[in-house]
Write a structure and sequence with these properties.
This protein has 9 helices and 15 strands. It is an alpha+beta fold. The radius of gyration is 22 Å and the shape is globular. Bound molecules: adenosine-5'-diphosphate (ADP) and magnesium ion. The site of adenosine-5'-diphosphate has 23 residues, from helix 2 and helix 4. Keywords: DNA damage, DNA repair, Endonuclease, Hydrolase, Nuclease.
């Protein structure tokens, strides 16, 4: 019998793998913004045209890359963030899988300009369909600028599956807001079709929330704070009278990473019990810090779902802390603490 199994060429493997990481323009935005934050940038600028279908560009003043690293960064499973498998249980960076840039470069045209802090010259790389087309020295600012053009130009099916510009832009804004909220100490700007949608100076979390969601949030927010051996919880919940019919402003962050978690969502909802109309949802912005050894961030390629070792305990800590805060602000009777 003839042998029929072949190893796929790198560019094909990358294109297939890209399906997991790069689902839409917003996925590119998320990956690039997270890379900038991981590179210790204090300023990050996002420029997008046509809801990311034609252009997504992220510039940062982070640590930049050497000439060799600039090329390596585009390889799949190439990362500066971990060295061994156990490292993901002590990880504090957003990335570690080393596949975002390789995936993006497999499904779009990518141009990278990067200069190491303190280095005389930078490197400019032009890449299409995973092939480096040119590499030159450049007089670029310290930090990194990555420009992604014509997303999915080589995968018509994917391109056709994209939603309207309005929907794709909404997804981009969501990703932008999540990263910007996770890092109020970093300045972010966002320009779409030549108009500035966000201009965020470094600030406190409260100020960042107000800058993103509007001034009326200033009177809406009730602080939540709890420090246990397992988890440090900080953030805000919206006062019950501001709860909305639609879901939307509900955010959990774990070690500065936005996550989705229906079970912990219920913990907040429980804390609001009796204070809300049946079909309204409280807003919340809750930050958890916990030992990375007690979570698993590698259960999903985009890492928006994570596993907690002690989910039930965290549930109860959140519920109690939120209830306590609501009580302190004379919004709910604070008589019934439960431990
Ligand atoms: P990961 O973030 O999982 O490591 P990526 O494919 O997103 O994988 O990036 C690969 C590597 O390229 C990173 O580990 C990092 O060393 C480097 N890199 C990517 N973006 C930047 C940036 N904006 N500034 C500095 N280095 C970067
Ligand atoms: Mg990354």
């Amino acid at each position: 019998m003839a042998d029929i199994i072949r190893l796929l060429p790198d560019n094909v493997a990358n294109q297939i793998a890209a399906g997991e990481v790069v689902q839409r323009p917003a996925s590119v935005v998320k990956e690039l913004l997270e890379n900038s934050v991981d590179a210790d940038a204090s300023e990050v600028h996002l420029v997008v045209s046509e809801s990311g279908k034609t252009l997504i560009q992220v510039s940062d003043n982070g640590k930049g890359m050497s000439e060799t690293d600039a090329r390596m960064a585009l390889e799949r499973h190439a990362t500066s963030k971990i060295q061994k498998a156990e490292d993901i249980f002590s990880i504090l960076t957003k990335g570690f899988r080393g596949e975002a840039l390789a995936s993006i470069a497999a499904v779009a045209k990518l141009n990278m300009r990067t200069r190491l802090r303190g280095s005389e010259l930078g490197t400019e790389l032009k890449v299409a369909a995973n092939e480096i087309e040119s590499q030159e020295f450049c007089q670029c600012p310290e930090g990194t600028t990555i420009k992604v053009q014509n997303l999915f130009y080589n995968i018509p099916a994917r391109r056709n599956f994209l939603k309207s510009n309005q929907v794709e832009l909404r997804h981009i804004i969501d990703e932008f807001e999540r990263v910007a909220m996770a890092h109020p100490e970093v300045a972010f700007s966002f320009e779409h079709n030549n108009s500035e949608l966000f201009h965020l100076e470094p600030s406190t979390l409260r100020q960042r929330i107000v800058n993103i969601f509007g001034k009326r949030y200033n009177e809406k927010l009730v602080p939540v704070s709890e420090d246990t051996e397992l988890v440090k919880l900080e953030g805000f919940v919206g006062k019950p009278e501001f709860a909305k019919k639609s879901r939307g402003e509900q955010f959990f962050f774990v070690n500065h990473r936005y996550i989705r978690n229906p079970y912990l969502h219920k913990a907040v909802q429980k804390a609001f019990e009796g204070l809300l109309l049946d079909d309204s949802h409280p807003s919340y912005f809750l930050f958890m810090e916990l030992d990375p050894a007690r979570i698993d961030v590698n259960i999903h390629p985009t890492k928006t779902e994570i596993k907690f070792e002690d989910e039930r305990v965290i549930h109860s800590i959140i519920r109690t802390a939120v209830k306590h805060s609501l009580g302190q602000y004379n919004i709910a009777p604070s008589l019934d603490f439960e431990h």
